[in-house]
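BUG-218 | component: ligand-complex export | severity: low

The export step for erythose-4-phosphate jobs runs without errors, but we want the raw record kept on the ticket for reference. Input record follows.
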Amino acid sequence: MKLFIDTANVSEIQQAFELGVISGITTNPSLVAKEGRDFFETLKEIVAIVGNIPISAEVVALEAPEMVEQGKKLAALGEGIVIKVPMTAEGLKATKIFTSLGIKTNVTLIFTSTQALLAARAGATYVSPFIGRLDDINQVGMNLIQEISQIFQVHSIESQIISASVRHSAHVIEAALLGAHIATIPYKIIESMMKHPLTDAGIQKFTDDWNQANQKGF
Ligand code: E4P
């Protein structure tokens, strides 16, 4: 399973990219609004940092023709730009058009496997089921990953499943075990995935022992 970073914060993207663990980026209008910066300038900076890896940028129009116009402007910013489209009838129409134009899409706000199947059949490059938001309403978000994963596998569907709305590192492991192709995660979860108290304790012990032995090897 690949890891994408879920943020519009350029400095977080830079830090995650330097770690070498990130294969793509997802943004959404709320994440962009949180940064308080110009969307297009932000995307240009992201492209300059990461090059042509997938960067999901979301349209905000609600009708297919306007979605397509917005998506074309975003796609012109770089080869890696993936147009994020909401899971609606208009979003499906726009996905079909983007597919015919050779523009990659990420159909977002997916909460059922029927939505995922429709998005895939419209040609979506990626589908984004939102795990955490289902957990928030007392449904088991991971069941959705399992269902979509099984349906796509049985029917050889090529759309890739992005496990989205990930809230903690256990979600990442479960998504990987259940066959999601990608998990998109906030920077703070990448940090938490790196850490273990025994790693810190081990480094401290190695350092103390080395210093006590008065080694001059380096
Ligand atoms: C990613 O594509 C989604 O926009 C994001 O993961 C949503 O996460 P949230 O439910 O924490 O806002």
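Assignee comment: Attached the raw record above. Residues 6, 26, 28, 108, 128, 130, 132-133, 164-165, 184 surround erythose-4-phosphate (CB under 6 Å).
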